[in-house]
Automatic annotation (TrEMBL):
This is Cytidylate kinase-like protein. Signal peptide: none annotated. It comes from Amblyomma americanum (Lone star tick). GO terms for biological process: nucleobase-containing compound metabolic process. InterPro entries: Adenylat/UMP-CMP_kin, P-loop_NTPase. Keywords: Kinase, Nucleotide-binding, Transferase. One of its GO terms (molecular function) is ATP binding. Pfam families: ADK. The keyword Transferase applies. Belongs to the adenylate kinase family.
Length: 71
């Protein structure tokens, strides 16, 4: 299966720097899909029976970084 390679854009910055706002503008202008690591982690955190939910919850509550093995 060949075809054009998809564009992958990473938007990085500290909390409150406007990453979500900029990503929304990219979605609106170019039709990109937006995947937020934080949103995905919070979704997993709230999933009953999740293999990693408790670990994610611990790190989010303590303001520490979720291990790369989980992200």
């Amino acid at each position: 299966m060949s075809g054009p390679k998809p564009y992958v854009v990473f938007v990085l910055g500290p909390p409150g720097s406007g990453k979500g706002t900029q990503c929304q503008k990219l979605v609106e202008k170019f039709g990109y899909k937006h995947l937020s690591a934080g949103d995905l982690l919070r979704q997993e955190q709230g999933t009953p029976g999740s293999q990693f939910g408790e670990v994610i919850d611990h790190h989010i509550r303590n303001g520490t970084i979720v291990p790369v093995e989980i992200t």
